[in-house]
Design brief:
The structure holds 2 protein chains of 2 kinds. Chain A is mainly alpha-helical. Helices cover 75% and strands 3% of the residues of chain A. Chain A has a two-stranded antiparallel ribbon. In chain A, helix 7 packs across helix 10, helix 13 (273-292) runs antiparallel to helix 14 and helix 14 runs antiparallel to helix 15. The longest helix of chain A has 33 residues, at 332-364. In chain B, helix 10 (234-241) packs antiparallel against helix 11, helix 14 packs antiparallel against helix 17 and helix 16 (374-388) packs antiparallel against helix 18. The radius of gyration of chain B is 21 Å and the shape is globular. Chain B is mostly helical. Chain B has helices spanning 6-11, 17-35, 42-61, 79-106, 111-128, 133-151, 158-189, 194-205, 209-226, 234-241, 244-270, 274-296, 302-323, 326-353, 369-372, 374-388, 394-408, 412-438, 451-469, 472-481, and strands at 67-70, 75-78. Chain B is built from 20 helices and 2 strands. The relative contact order of chain B is 0.09. In chain B, strands 1-2 form a two-stranded antiparallel sheet. The longest helix of chain B has 32 residues, at 158-189. Classes of the chains: A mainly alpha, B mainly alpha. Chain A binds chain B through residues 24-25, 68-72, 109, 112, 134, 137-138, 141-142, 144-145, 148-149, 152-153, 159-160, 163-164, 167-168, 171-172, 175-176, 178-179, 182-183, 185-186, and chain B through 370, 374, 385, 390-392, 396, 400, 403-404, 407-408, 412, 415-416, 419-420, 422-423, 426-427, 430-431, 433-434, 437-438, 470-472, 475-476, 479.
Chain lengths: 504, 483
């Protein structure tokens, strides 16, 4: 079965999604249960990915390679390494949570709603597993369609604006990446990513390819200054949509930098690392301040996501500065490790935060911070969870948020104290906006009548938040399994990016 | 050209079996239609569709080598001709299936629609198989004249008559320009037959200034028939003014014929002058992509929107042709076929929604289609995403192919322009999806259409999806016919 594990992970949710779609919107209970079964089964199939994973090699594992479009040499070539495997697990785990969390909250077109999320899950796993650039691109773009529909149908009042902005922003970036991929295909005669990574390229070629990738991935991450679609998309998306966006879609950008930009264009990455590092630090500092002044809870968390993803891109590219300043390569993999852990942790924490907002929104139908206050008095269990996730968002030791930020700041320190200083402001600013949010929403006296009428978590909500709380604390206290799984891969990547690809 | 030889002419007749059959069938159906009374008028449509399918089979089973010239050097049969003919015939058959309901509901179900359609198809086939400028022109005129009449077919409609006149006047001018260009080429090379023209040019006439003039006129004519900017003025008005079932004919079958016209004239006859016409096509392609995609945004009528969308897609097809490489021609052909599949489906949905006295050709008529019919909303969404070039639909592979072709000849800036304007294009296709899925319906009428039409339409749209997931066979076909 391990031979076809990844295929199952990709196609099971997609086929399941079409089955749910076929049930029609009139059979809501059936749609819910089928979705739950499909998402649980996918989660179950993803567990062997971890248990049978060989942590001793940087090679691709669970590889499947069959011919797909022979006439253009594009293959159905999938596999995982230490970077993509944890992200796939994150995807399957998050989808189960979304299905449970959305059980009662969707008012219309229920089967289409669940179907969209299942199809999206399969496509996202495909993005992380693809080893062929054409296949990667197909999954990468196809993923936009369900998300477009999710925000557009079940979103808030300005959903149409938000969803079209989301689609066009990400589409324009991706198309430039497509031109770069075709360019490399014409040079090498194949779409295999591994061969792209080994292909010699001049600095000029690398620079153009790097910039093309940069537009695609920077929009997805999103990096300042192309981040403006994210707050709109998050605010308008239904809770489930926000969770997928924050937990997984943003990770695609970070994953793209690690899988494409760094290994395919190492020399251009070295030359242009100032670009990424500057944008990342701006994201950390400036967007941190922007988050501070938000009145809408979802917007605040969206900006906090941008700041946290700044740490990811900083960690991915800080290695070049370490080498430039110290002449040594030790510490490069800290940045890469930190980037991956930060992606996983942010996936858990931001989905938890959005689910918390969703819990309150379902009761009060407002996302304004000023509509709340003193929630702890009526929802003590919920308040406990919210505070835990807020602490994880700050990066308090013992939560998952700490590990990644610590590793990245450590790596920045090796490069230059000032990088570490600016990156470190994330801890201060993160604490400021998150704790202030908690203070205004959770604590204090009951300020509004509808807060007085709030009921605490029901069993379903408790289950979802409880699972996330366990995951957040587990990764925070004992990150070793994840770090072990990806160590060899990140070490390999660290070596790969320090070797010039320019042919003398 | 050699002298005419009756025995040789007769010996080559079997190469034209499909054309001969279709011509006879069209005459027979015209006569038969006279004796049918109005209650059995739909038989004409059935017979016409069957005739097309039989012709398609006859065409498909012909054993075809690389290239055979027959009928005194007027007719040629190669793999491209065979493939284009089969696609054209099937497309017209599908168009006929879509048309029947529409014509019935408009009370304009006349046998002439089908007979004119059959003769137009015959013209397209002659054009596709032309080995000589005369046959090329003959086929083109047979096709065009039938189309002019078809546009004016709903004789009580003022707007249709206006469109027909516009189409006729501009179309005749374009034909004249094309003919003028052909006559210059004949004057310079002394040949009418495509292979001889190519040979003469290759022997050192490529830089001849007279020939360049001829090429410029030919490009104008071809650009007009394809609908490339700046020769696109007729497209939006004709698309909007014609009965929708004629619009879909013009938008699909006649575009295939125009593509064949371009392929026969440019690479086949004028291949040695490729650097010259390629530069002219760059201008047409960029303008078409820019104007087509940008102006489509402002449209409120879906037929007009699809008209500008056609213009932009022609720009992309020209990218493949101007590359001047076999990969480019293959990509252009793949693009053309995939465009025809998608466009016939999109117009099919418009035809499906049209009812008695209600054209349903405004964009707002698509509001809330998902609530009225989730299935056909899904089909239309597939088609729109395919036109936008989003994977995993067929339109994506078409765009990939032409971008690959222009990158292959180092036109990187052209590739970047092409992809950037496809983002502009994505906007108005998304707007249709937005109307269908995100808005509430203003109209709750049951979706009509016969079972046959619904089935064919569903298969048509699903083809855009299935061929998008596994495009290998169609790409391989294009590589096979244009080696």
């Amino acid at each position: 079965m391990n031979d076809h594990l990844l295929s199952i992970l990709i196609w099971l949710p997609i086929i399941g999604g079409f089955v749910v779609l076929g049930l029609g919107n009139d059979r809501a209970p059936a749609a819910r249960w089928v979705s739950l079964v499909v998402s649980l089964a996918t989660l179950a199939f993803s567990i062997p990915l971890y248990t049978s994973f060989n942590t001793g090699t940087a090679d691709m594992q669970f590889v499947e390679h069959t011919s797909w479009i022979p006439s253009i040499h594009a293959d159905f070539n999938i596999g995982v390494d230490g970077i993509s495997m944890p992200l796939i697990l994150l995807t399957t785990f998050t989808t189960v949570l979304i299905v449970i969390a959305s059980w009662q909250n969707v008012a219309k077109r229920i089967s289409q709603y669940f179907a969209a999320f299942l199809i999206l899950e399969g496509l996202m796993i495909g993005v992380f597993a693809a080893l062929d650039a054409a296949l990667f691109y197909v999954f990468w773009e196809a993923m936009l369609l369900p998300m477009f529909i999710i925000i557009g149908i079940w979103g808030g009042p300005r959903r149409v604006y938000a969803t079209i902005k989301f689609f066009l922003y990400t589409f324009i970036g991706s198309l430039l990446m497509l031109v770069a991929l075709i360019y490399m295909y014409l040079k090498s005669g194949t779409y295999e990513i591994a061969l792209f990574q080994g292909m010699p390229l001049t600095l000029r070629e690398q620079t153009f390819i790097f910039l093309a990738f940069f537009t695609a991935f920077a929009v997805k991450v999103p990096m300042w200054p192309v981040h403006t679609w994210l707050p709109d998309a998050h605010v308008e998306a239904p809770t489930g949509g926000s969770v997928v966006l924050a937990a997984i879609m943003l990770k695609m950008g970070g994953y793209g930098f690690l899988r494409f930009s760094l290994p395919i264009t190492p020399d251009a990455s070295r030359e242009l690392d100032w670009l990424i590092i500057t944008f990342s630090l701006i994201a950390v500092v400036y967007i941190g301040f922007v988050a501070l002044v938000q009145r809408d809870m979802k917007k605040l968390i969206a900006y906090s996501s941008i700041a946290h993803m700044g740490i990811v891109t900083l960690g991915a590219f800080i290695g070049f500065q370490i080498v430039a300043h110290t002449g040594k390569t030790s510490g490069v993999e800290f940045g890469l490790d930190g980037a991956v852990v930060q992606m996983l942790s942010h996936g858990l924490v931001s989905s938890a935060m959005f689910l918390c907002v969703g819990v309150m929104y379902d009761r009060v139908h407002s996302r304004e911070i000023s509509a709340y206050g003193g929630v702890v008095n009526t929802m003590p269990k919920f308040a406990a969870f919210m505070v835990l996730f807020a602490l994880a968002n700050i990066g308090v030791p013992g939560t998952s948020g700490f590990v990644g930020e610590f590793l990245v700041i450590l790596a920045s320190f090796k490069a230059n104290v000032w990088y570490a200083f600016l990156a470190g402001t994330t801890l201060v600013l993160g604490a400021a906006y998150t704790l202030w949010l908690v203070k205004r929403v959770i604590f204090g006296d009951i300020a509004n009548d509808h807060v007085r009428e709030l009921t605490d978590l029901n069993g379903r909500e408790f289950l979802v938040l409880g699972l996330l709380a366990v995951a957040v604390v587990l990764v925070g206290v004992w990150p070793a399994p994840i770090l072990d799984a990806m160590r060899v891969t990140t070490q390999h990547l660290a070596q790969q990016i320090l070797v010039s690809k320019i042919v003398p | 050209m050699n002298g005419f030889n009756v025995a040789e002419f007769n010996a080559g007749l079997h190469y034209a079996t499909p054309e001969i059959f279709l011509g006879l069938a069209a005459c027979a159906i015209l006569l038969l239609d006279l004796v049918l009374d109005d209650s059995r008028r739909s038989w004409t449509g059935v017979l016409a569709t069957v005739a097309l399918l039989v012709t398609a089979v006859l065409s498909a089973v012909q054993p075809v080598g690389p290239r055979v010239v027959a009928l005194g050097g007027l007719f040629e049969l190669d793999r491209m001709a065979q493939a284009l003919k089969v696609v054209t015939l099937i497309t017209v058959a599908v168009v006929f299936v879509y048309s029947t309901d529409y014509l019935k509901r408009r009370a304009i179900l006349k046998g002439e629609y089908y007979v004119l359609g059959l003769f137009a198809t015959l013209g397209a086939m002659a054009l596709i198989s032309a080995a000589n400028l005369i046959t090329l022109y003959l086929g083109l005129e047979l096709l065009s004249l039938c189309l002019y009449a078809m546009v004016a077919f709903d004789r009580d409609s003022g707007i249709a008559a206006e469109s027909a006149i516009k189409y006729f006047v501009l179309g005749s001018m374009a034909s004249g320009t094309l003919l003028y260009g052909m006559s210059i080429v004949y004057g310079v090379t002394g040949h009418l037959d495509l292979a001889s023209i190519a040979m003469v040019i290759r022997s050192g006439y490529a830089a001849n200034i007279g020939l360049l003039f001829g090429i410029a006129f030919i490009i104008v004519g071809v650009g007009f028939k394809l609908g490339a900017v700046p020769f696109h003025m007729w497209i939006p008005d004709v698309y909007e003014g014609s009965p929708t079932c004629v619009t879909v004919f013009i938008g699909t079958a006649s575009k295939l014929a125009a593509f064949a016209l371009a392929m026969r004239l440019l690479p086949e006859a004028l291949g040695a002058s490729q650097p010259d016409w390629s530069q002219m096509l760059v201008v047409l392609a960029v303008l078409s992509m820019v104007i087509g995609n940008v102006v489509a945004i402002a449209q409120t009528n879906i037929k007009r929107m699809l008209a500008y969308s056609t213009i932009s897609h022609i720009g992309y097809i020209l990218l493949g042709i101007l590359a001047g490489t076999p990969q480019g021609y293959q990509a252009a052909m793949f693009y053309m076929i995939s465009y025809v599949i998608v466009a016939s489906g999109a117009f099919g949905v418009v035809l499906l929604l049209a009812r008695q006295g209600f054209e349903s050709d405004k964009l707002v008529d698509f509001k809330g289609l998902n609530a009225r019919s989730p299935w056909f909303a899904g089909m239309m969404a597939i088609l729109m995403f395919s036109l936008a070039g989003v994977p995993p639909f067929i339109g994506f592979w078409a765009k990939l192919g032409v971008v690959q072709a222009v990158l292959g000849v180092s036109y990187t800036w052209l590739a970047v322009v092409a992809v950037l304007f496809s983002v502009v294009g994505a906007f108005f296709y998304l707007r249709v999806v937005k109307l269908m899925y995100f808005d509430d319906p203003t109209d709750s009428t049951q979706i009509g259409g016969s079972t046959l039409m619904r089935t064919v339409l569903s298969l048509n749209a699903l083809a855009a999806f299935v061929l998008g997931v596994v495009p290998g066979s169609l790409i391989a076909l294009c590589q096979h016919v244009l080696p």
